[in-house]
Design goal:
The protein is of the alpha+beta class and about 625 residues long. The protein contains 16 helices and 33 strands. The strands form six sheets. The protein has an eight-stranded antiparallel beta sheet. Helix 4 packs parallel to helix 5, helix 10 packs across helix 15 and helix 11 packs antiparallel against helix 13. The relative contact order is 0.08.
C-alpha cells in the first residue's frame, strides 16, 4: 500500500547551486514554520555555518509539513570523497530533485550522484535554480540535464518524468515557477509538484518490522544513534528488536528512544510507521548496514558495504615555537580524546593510535574527507600538526602489492586536451575514453590515488583555469611503481622572527613566496618555493645596511608579488615526506619535520641520503 501523506525526496546538487538556500526557503514557506520560533533559530544557525564553511552543513535529514503531507528531505554529499554515503542515503528516498544552476548547468560532480539515483530507480524532478542570474539560460540547463540523464542510462520512464516535471526557481529570492517568464513570488509551485507528482512510499505496514541503519549520529549522553528508513512494519518505543549485522551475526536490543525528523530537528515519538525515516537510540555499537527487525519473523535485507579508506594521515600535538598563540587546546591528550570521540561519531573513518604513542593515525576516503575533520577541529580551538597523506596499500592472495585506483574525469576546452593528457601521463594516469564536443572535451582516466595529489592545480594551470576535474574511487589495482613528486625545493627560514619586506624582495627573485612582510616565522618554517630543486635556508629578517651615502633611488619601496596562500587540501597535497602542515584556528603553516638545519643534515646522513665527507 502507498503512504499518501508521506514523501521521501533526495536533493542532488553541486554545492554552489544553492541547495541550502532552497531548503531554507521551502522551510520558510510552510505555515508550521512561521508558528515555531525554535525552528527559525535552527535555520538561522544552519545558514551561518553554511556561509562560514562554504560547503553544505545542513542536517542529513530534515522534514517539511505541507498540506497534510510530511516531506522528508535527504541531503546527498556532492563530493566524490563522500561518495560512500551517496548510495546509502539514496536508499531512503523514493524520488529526487536535481538542482542545477541556470547559468552553469549540471556540473561534473553532479554526474556521480545522478548515476546512483538512476541506478536506484528514483523518479527525478529537475529544478533550474538562479534563473535571475545574469547570463542565465534556463532552457539550455534543462536540456543539458536531460542529456546527462540519457548519457547515464536513465530509463524511458525516468526521462519522461523529468521532461514533464521541471521547476524554475530563484532560491535566494524565494520563488519557484513552472515557466521562467511567469510571475510568482513564493515556493508553492515546487511544494505542490512534490506533493502531487512525487511517488509516495509503497510499503506493507502489517508486515514484520524491517529497518536498515544507513547513517550514524552520536550523542555524548546516549551514545550512537542509528538513522534509517522503516521499510515495513512499525517500530515502537520500548520494542525488543533483533539487530542483524553485515557479517550475519545477530543480537537482541531494546529501543530506548525513538525520534522522527521535524524541520531541522528531531521529535521524540512512540512509534514510526513504514515508509518514514527514524532515529533509534539504545542499540549498543550499532553500525551502518545493521538491520532492525522482528525477532520472531526476521526480515532479510541486503548488507551495506562502506567504501574502504584509501588515505591516512597522522595527527600529532604541535611542536611549533609559536604553539598556543592562536588556539586554546594544544595538548596531546586532548587531541587523542577529540579523535577518539570522532571515531565514535564518524564510522566512515578509521582512527587508531600509533604504537609509539606519538600520534593518532586517521584513515579516510580522500584529502577532502580528512581535511573536513581538520577544519572542524581548528574551528573548535585545536592546534595540531599533520604529516603528508599516505596511501593505504593492500596485498592480494599471491603476495602482489595493490594500491587504490581512481577514475578521474576532466572536462576542458578542446585546445587544452593535449596538455591535460600529458599531465596525467606524468602522474601515472592512463586515458580510458575521450569524447570531443563542439567546444568541450570530456576525458576519463584511470590513475593511482598517489598521482591524484596535487593534480588539480596542474590541470588548472595547463587549462588556463577552464578545466573541471573530479575523481572517485574505482578499485584496488596493481602497484604502478614510483611516481614523480614535487620537483622544486623549498625556502626555509633560519630564524624565528617576523618577515621583512627588504629580505622578501631579494628572495622573490629566487622563487615564489608563501609569506608577506610582518608574518611571524620560525626556524624550519617553509616561507617559499625555489625555482630549482633542492632546499635553501634563507634569512627572512635581513634588513638593508644603512650608510651615510644617499642616491636618487635609495628610498624606493620594495615591490612584492602577493604571496601564495594554501587551503588545507592544497597544503596536504603540497608537502613532502619530511614536512608537516601546522594547523591552528587562524593559520595554516608549512614546516620541516626537523626544524634545525644542522639536525636535518645529520638526519639525512644517518638515512643515507647524503654522503658524510
Amino acid at each position: 500500500m502507498r503512504v499518501e501523506n508521506l514523501r521521501n525526496i533526495a536533493i542532488i546538487a553541486h554545492v554552489d547551486h544553492g541547495k541550502t538556500t532552497l531548503v531554507d526557503k521551502l522551510l520558510r514557506a510552510t505555515d508550521a514554520f512561521r508558528a515555531n520560533q525554535q525552528v527559525e533559530e535552527r535555520v538561522l544557525d544552519s545558514n551561518e555555518q553554511e556561509r562560514e564553511r562554504g560547503i553544505t552543513i545542513l542536517a542529513k535529514n530534515c522534514s517539511i509539513e505541507y498540506k497534510g503531507v510530511k516531506i522528508n528531505i535527504i541531503d546527498t554529499p556532492g563530493h566524490a570523497d563522500f561518495g560512500g554515503e551517496v548510495e546509502r542515503v539514496l536508499k531512503m528516498a523514493d524520488g529526487a530533485l536535481l538542482l542545477v544552476d541556470a547559468f552553469e548547468g549540471p556540473m561534473p560532480q553532479t554526474r556521480f550522484v545522478v548515476s546512483h539515483a538512476i541506478a536506484c530507480g528514483l523518479q527525478i524532478m529537475i529544478v533550474i535554480n538562479k534563473i535571475d542570474r545574469p547570463g542565465a539560460e534556463p532552457e539550455r540547463a534543462y536540456n543539458d540535464c536531460l542529456d546527462l540523464m540519457a548519457d547515464l542510462g536513465a530509463t524511458d520512464e525516468q526521462l519522461e518524468f523529468a521532461m514533464e516535471h521541471v521547476v524554475y526557481a530563484s532560491a535566494v529570492n524565494g520563488y519557484a515557477r513552472l515557466d521562467p517568464l511567469a510571475d510568482g513570488d513564493d515556493m508553492y509551485p515546487l511544494l505542490d509538484m512534490i506533493v502531487r507528482e512525487m511517488p509516495a512510499p509503497e510499503v506493507d505496514e502489517n508486515a514484520p518490522l524491517a529497518m536498515q541503519c544507513v547513517t550514524i549520529d552520536h550523542s555524548s549522553y546516549v551514545g550512537r544513534i542509528g538513522i534509517g528508513r522503516v521499510y515495513s512494519g512499525t517500530i515502537h518505543d520500548g520494542d525488543q528488536i533483533l539487530v542483524v549485522k553485515n557479517d550475519g551475526s545477530s543480537s537482541t536490543a531494546t529501543v530506548k528512544q525513538l525520534y522522527t525528523f521535524d524541520y531541522l530537528g528531531r521529535t521524540e515519538c512512540d512509534e514510526v510507521g513504514a515508509g518514514d525515516i527514524a532515529a533509534v537510540v539504545g542499540i549498543d555499537h550499532t553500525d551502518i548496514g545493521d538491520v532492525y527487525t522482528d525477532p520472531e519473523n526476521p526480515v532479510h535485507l541486503d548488507p551495506i558495504e562502506i567504501d574502504p579508506p584509501t588515505l591516512s594521515v597522522v595527527f600529532e600535538a604541535s611542536t611549533s615555537p609559536l604553539v598556543g598563540r592562536d588556539g586554546d587546546i594544544v595538548g596531546a591528550r586532548q587531541l587523542k580524546e577529540r579523535l577518539a570521540q570522532e571515531a565514535e561519531n564518524n564510522v566512515t573513518m578509521k582512527i587508531e593510535e600509533l604504537e609509539d604513542k606519538s600520534g593518532v593515525e586517521v584513515s579516510g576516503r580522500g584529502i577532502l574527507h580528512l581535511s573536513v575533520l581538520m577544519e572542524t577541529m581548528r574551528r573548535e580551538g585545536y592546534e595540531f600538526q599533520v604529516g603528508r597523506p599516505r596511501v593505504l596499500f593492500h596485498t592480494d592472495e599471491h603476495g602482489n602489492k595493490l594500491e587504490p585506483i581512481e577514475q578521474a574525469v576532466v572536462e576542458c576546452p578542446d585546445e587544452y586536451a593535449g596538455k591535460v593528457i600529458e599531465v596525467f601521463g606524468n602522474a601515472g594516469g592512463t586515458m580510458t575514453s575521450m569524447n570531443a564536443g563542439s567546444t568541450v572535451t570530456h576525458i576519463e582516466f584511470r590513475i593511482p590515488t598517489r598521482g591524484i595529489m596535487g593534480l588539480k592545480n596542474r590541470i588548472l594551470n595547463v587549462s588556463h583555469g577552464e578545466g573541471v576535474f573530479y575523481h572517485t574511487f574505482l578499485e584496488y589495482g596493481p602497484y604502478a611503481g614510483e611516481l614523480g613528486g614535487r620537483n622544486n625545493g623549498a625556502m626555509i627560514s633560519m630564524t624565528t622572527e617576523k618577515a621583512v619586506a627588504y629580505a622578501l624582495g631579494t628572495l622573490q627573485e629566487r622563487g615564489q613566496l608563501f609569506v608577506e612582510p610582518g608574518t611571524e616565522c620560525y626556524e624550519g618554517m617553509l616561507v617559499g618555493e625555489r625555482n630549482k630543486p633542492g632546499d635553501m635556508v634563507v634569512n627572512i629578517a635581513r634588513t638593508k645596511n644603512l650608510g651615510n651615502q644617499r642616491s636618487s633611488t635609495a628610498d624606493i619601496a620594495v615591490q612584492l608579488t602577493p604571496p601564495r596562500t594554501f587551503t588545507l587540501e592544497e597544503a596536504l597535497e603540497y608537502i613532502t615526506d619530511d614536512e608537516l602542515v601546522e594547523v591552528t584556528p587562524k593559520n595554516i603553516r608549512l614546516r620541516k619535520r626537523i626544524l634545525n638545519a644542522t639536525d636535518r643534515k645529520k638526519a639525512a646522513v644517518r638515512a643515507g641520503q647524503v654522503k658524510n665527507k
